Every structure is written in C-alpha cells, then in structure tokens.
Amino acid sequence: MKDEINSSNKLQLTGEIRPQIPIIGIGGAGLNLTDSIVKRLSTYKIQYNTMGIDINQKELDKNSMIETKYLIDDRQSTNKQYLRGNSIAREKQDILRQRISSYLASLKVDNEVVFVLLGGGGTGVGVAIEVIDILISMGKRPVPFLMLPSEDENTRIKFNTAVALYKFSYAPSDRCFDLVTICIDNNLFISKNKNNSISSTLAGINERVAATIADIIISTELTSHGYNSELNDFIEIFREIKGIGTLTYMHHTEDDSIDNIFRDNLMMANSFECDIFSGTRSYIFVQSAEAQLTSMEYRSFLNQFNNIDIFPKLNEAGKDKFIAIRGVTTGIKLPDRIRDLIKFAEDVRVNLLTKENNNSMQGKGNPRINRLKGDADIEVIDDENGGDNA
Predict the structure, then answer these.
(1) What's the predicted TM-score (pTM) here?
(2) Under a CB-based contact definition with an 8 Å cutoff, are residues 142 and 235 in contact?
C-alpha cells in the first residue's frame, strides 16, 4: 500500500480553520521540526505563529518559517551538554519567562496545552527543562515531543535523551514534571529506509512528523462551533497522566478495506515501536473522500467491535479514494526501546562512579565524586577516544 508523505496527502478542509495550540521549538532539532510544521500548515493556507528558542543565531535564522524567535545567548554551542544549556537558560530565566509570556499572549487564546519540541542536544534538553518549568508555573500543561537518538548517536545525546525522559515523565514525583512525553524514534524510521541516505531519511522523518502534528492540530478545529468539544477531547489525553505517547500517521490511496488497513498497518504507523493498544488514552481522526469521523465519534462507535461497521461511509468508493488517519496515544506500557535507553543512562552513571572511586583509591582526588554519590545531576562528556568522563 502506498503510505507516502507528499503535497497531495492532506486532509480535506472546508471553511476557515484557526488552530489554537502554541508550539515552542528548542535547539536545532526542535527548530527544524517547528519550521516544518509551519510549512505544512501553509499548504492549507493557514498562517501559524510559533516560537523558536536557541543559543545559536544561525540556527534561528535558517528556520525562516518561525515567526517568534528568542536568542538566549549567542554562544554557538553547548557541546551537547545539557547542564550547560540549562545553566544558560537559568541565567536568563526572567527574560525567558517574559518572552514566553509575550508569545502566548500574542496568540489571543488561553490554551492549557503547549507543545514543546526538542531533540537530545544540550540546548534542546537543557533549555527545555527550564521552559517547561516556566510553563507549568504559568498553569500550562506542556507536552514535550522528544526525538529519540539513533543507535549511532554518541553517548552524550543518548544520555541527554534519557535525562529528558526521566525529568519529564519517569523520575520520582519530587523531581519529575509528571508529563506525557511524545516519543519520535529516528531508529525506527532509519531501519525502514536502509536503502536511502541518512540525510534524506532524516528529512523524511521531519516531514512526516511535522505533517502528523500539523494535521492533528487542524483536526481539533474541523468541527468547531463556539465551545470546541473536539479540542477539549484532545487536551484530555494529556491531563493528570504521565509516561509516554506516540503519534500515528497513515495515508492510504490504494483500494483496500478499512478492516485490512487497521489490522495490518496501524501498529506500523506510529512514531516509535510500541503497543498502542496498551495505551490508556487516545485521540484519533479518520477521513476519506466520502466522510470523516472525529475522535469523539470514533469512540462512540467502538462498542460495535467491527471496523467495517464503524466506518460504513468511509468504505464507499470514491473518485479520489483515500483513507487518512492521524492520532495520538498516551499512557502506553513502557516499551523496551525506552527501558533500554534509561538503563543505558544508569549504566553510564555507574561507570562514572566506579571510575571516580578507582581514581580516589589511587590518590587521584576529584570533587565530582561527591556529587555522584549524592545523586546530583551529572554530565556525560565523550573523550576523543570515545570514552566517557564526568
């Protein structure tokens, strides 16, 4: 079946759509994804004000679709160290809060949910920790979208990503933001596109994820009549819940039954490999050339237990036949991919502690060992030979 991202794979819109969910991209990966979301929305002739935050002016400049930009401190790089990124953000905490507040006020909507997009770099993770803390203090419910590292990423990026997952969703409550983190797995996409170059695959990942996020935002407004029950239904999957979530994107243009599409492809259409049926909450939007089903309508039909019955109109043949599915599932059972990443970070910490203990026994004192023993935040730095040290 064809399942490609291209300019024709869009939702069918009627009337004016005014999406209302704020988006803040942080660091190189976050900015690139935010820029791509705005480009996707522009294909629907929707202008969308998003915010980009970085410490590198060149990164901000090259993402021209982002309207609101804030250069925290033009230091060029954090050298992939999240504590350095976090320190820079904390130094500028007051003005950072002002810039975020100003951006949110410019949207003229008081939305509870704010999307925060980032990768595993030092700026992305370090600055995002501070941004999310600020948003929570404003009474918002941040939803981090986190790009997971590939197998070939260096130790620092993997460690940063584990720190983000731990801080956002898995730490004890006194050290955790207690949020749902939407995971996007580069590894999964790369493994399915081995015949393509890494650069083209990464570009494709960005385009697919951006299309999914943009289309989901649009879907929350398609049935808006004053009080938007569909938007509230979407926000509900993030309230009073923590853990991880995944995006779902499917767009099929070849003739096949809905039943086959769901049975054979739904598990393969997510932003990382997981059991979506273990999720406790979901938002799904389905559209064809004939009709559409909102998330609330879909849920009201579930007791029929048959996808053919659930989607009778969607199954009708049409001149331009297609099935579009966009969704988010949260409250997912912890998959091996995330478990392994967190264990990797724990192993790195143990190795650091062992190394510093050995150094102390040999008379090579290092005050950082006291921080390690005290369960303080640590940084991972790769040496030129690929090793790690604190």
Answers:
(1) 0.84
(2) no
15 occurs within a structural domain: no
Domain membership of residue 211 as a residue range: 23-219
- Residue 2 phi/psi, 5° resolution? -80, 135
Residue 169: pLDDT above 50?
A: yes
Instruction: Give the mean model confidence (pLDDT) for residues 258-284.
Output: 73
DSSP 3-state of 250:
strand
Specify whether the CB–CB gap between 347 and 290 falls below 8 A. Answer: no
pLDDT per position as a tens digit, 219-237: 888 765 545 677 888 889 9
Q: CB-based contacts of 46: which residues, under 8 Å, 6+ apart?
A: 17, 19, 218
| Number of domains the chain is built from | 3
Q: Quick check: 209 and 117 in contact, CB under 8 A?
A: no
Domain shared by 77 and 194, yes or no: yes
- pLDDT, tens digit (0-9, with 9 covering 90-100), for 301-320: 655 555 555 555 555 544 56
- What pLDDT is attached to residue 383? 37
Q: Would you state the structure tokens that stand for residue 13, as one six-digit string?
A: 């819109």
Residue whose tokens read 């997009």: 117
d(CA 168, CA 9): 33
Judge if 142 and 208 occupy the same domain. Answer: yes
d(CA 39, CA 213): 12
- Rounded-to-10 torsion of CA 18, 23, 28, 32: -20
Is residue 146 within 8 A of residue 174, CB to CB? The reply is: no
Q: CA 57, CA 43: separation in Å to the nearest integer?
A: 27
| 280 assigned to some structural domain | yes
Which pair of structure tokens corresponds to residue 3? 């399942």
- DSSP annotation of 166 reads I
